[in-house]
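User: Hi! Is it possible to get a structure for several chains at once, not just one? Here's what I have:
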Amino acid sequence: MRVTSALAALAGLLASTANAAPDAQGTVSVMKTIEHTRFQTKTISKTYTASAACSASTVSSSSTTSLTSTIASPISSSSAVSSSSSSATSYPSTTYATTPAYPFCTSYPSPFASVDNVHPRLFNYNGTGAKFFAGTNAWWASHILSDSDLDTVFSEIKDTQLQVVRVWGFGSVNTDPGPDSVFFQLLNSTGSYINYAANGIPRLDAVVSYAEKVGIKVVLNFVNNWSDLGGIASYNAAFGGNATTWYTDTEGQQVYRDYIKLLVNRYKCSSAIFAWELANEPRCHGCSTSVIYDWATEISQYVKSLDSKHMVTLGDEGWFAPAGDIGDGSVDFALNLGIKTLDYGVFHLYPDSWGYNETWGSAWILEHNAVGAAQNKPVVLEEYGGPPSPDNHTAVEEPWQATVLDDTRLAMDQFWQFGTVDLSTGLSDYDIYTIWYNATEYAPLAREHAAAMLEKAV
Ligand SMILES: *[C@@H]1O[C@H](CO)[C@@H](O)[C@H](O)[C@H]1NC(C)=O
Ligand SMILES: *[C@@H]1O[C@H](CO)[C@@H](O)[C@H](O)[C@H]1NC(C)=O
Ligand SMILES: *[C@@H]1O[C@H](CO)[C@@H](O)[C@H](O)[C@H]1NC(C)=O
Ligand SMILES: *[C@@H]1O[C@H](CO)[C@@H](O)[C@H](O)[C@H]1NC(C)=O
Ligand SMILES: *[C@@H]1O[C@H](CO)[C@@H](O)[C@H](O)[C@H]1NC(C)=O
Ligand SMILES: *[C@@H]1O[C@H](CO)[C@@H](O)[C@H](O)[C@H]1NC(C)=O
Ligand SMILES: *[C@@H]1O[C@H](CO)[C@@H](O)[C@H](O)[C@H]1NC(C)=O
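Assistant: Yes, the chains can be modeled jointly so their relative placement is included. Here is the combined structure:
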């Protein structure tokens, strides 16, 4: 899903995205202007305690103080411990070498999620054997500034029996937007600067912390294909290149890997991570499928080299190329599912913005299930959204959910997207696909479906 954010509005990008003509590939949604007051600054003041399960060697004694520090100074490439390849570039490395480890892993004593040994198309969520289940998306959870709001968000999602929530792990800017907007890295011609101020990395810490607290898991992704919240465009603005060359661009890929290293090392001891995701909806227009395939192979191997315990997935829309008639020919779902270091495949479903009818949605679901069956790997309907029928997506989305439930072995589906009216500032991010926690349709589309998925016989 392509989203437009308050951050984009602040950067003056809202007009250009909101006015974009709908096209056959990108999702263009009607966005409501979001009040800046929604993003109030709040300093994290609590002290997190490291537990025994998070080894002392990974917890820096300066971890607590760092939560209130400001944008870190870049360190020179030569002083970046274990950054073997960064010496090849003149760009300063991100500061992972001196980054404190996530200091409060494992308040949630569940095992990591994994692909189930007995039923390799399903997940073993918390060590109790294979289950089907449902999840959701709340991209904005890492981009709100209030801890108590996150507590509300995760409690409501937990209360619904949704097991997984996908959240943006990225947020990059080229110029500092000020303390009211969340961003994790600032990219400019002199390098990548990680934001450890209250509107930076501590927001991701809080997401992982509250997921642990309530006992659900998050999918964190590393970069956006779209320019919302920075994305590949923000790398290109700093280091040159374009949306096509980024996948092979030396500097861009180095900074991207450094950011991955930061996130993975920070949260790798937390069982609240469901999976790492390489990108949101990566595409490489005009490229052979080998570009995304090679990139996804190398990056997923890199993630596994940092963290062999958590699952990794790609984050693409699930295009079938070259035979399929959807997409730009650069993404081949079946080919990419063969990558050994990708644990499961994902696909998205937005027939209205792709020029298809709603009935076709169920066929799309069945096709992906068949590829999963052929390769004996888990496949997840990771985003789905019906067309604008405000406040009632039931007629469109219930049949898709029924297809997933009754006619497939898809391990999980995750509706786009969870919304709540219970934040201190009112509404969470609005888009036409949002299923609001207080809406009548929340019962069939979220609660009842989540319960039905959990009850489905393995
Ligand atoms: C997680 O574990 C509990 C038991 O501790 C079990 O009841 C529940 O079904 C498990 N959840 C999933 C999604 O497997
Ligand atoms: C890049 O951003 C950093 C952090 O704000 C700043 O110190 C540096 O001067 C910037 N470089 C350029 C070329 O603007
Ligand atoms: C991206 O850059 C490459 C290399 O300079 C160029 O060949 C290609 O046409 C560019 N693509 C776009 C869409 O500008
Ligand atoms: C996302 O993917 C499409 C297709 O390759 C491309 O046109 C677009 O420029 C990409 N990136 C951004 C930042 O939108
Ligand atoms: C929906 O689209 C499919 C394939 O794109 C087509 O076969 C079918 O007739 C369409 N159904 C309706 C009701 O338009
Ligand atoms: C939403 O749509 C469903 C299916 O068309 C219908 O049964 C239900 O009454 C509608 N709910 C509301 C609140 O309009
Ligand atoms: C949900 O809350 C919003 C904001 O308070 C309100 O406008 C809307 O009517 C509520 N919906 C329902 C179904 O109660």
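Residues 356-357, 359-360 surround 2-acetamido-2-deoxy-beta-D-glucopyranose (ligand 5) (CB under 6 Å). Residues 2-455 form a domain with the TIM Barrel fold (CATH 3.20.20.80).

User: Great, thank you!
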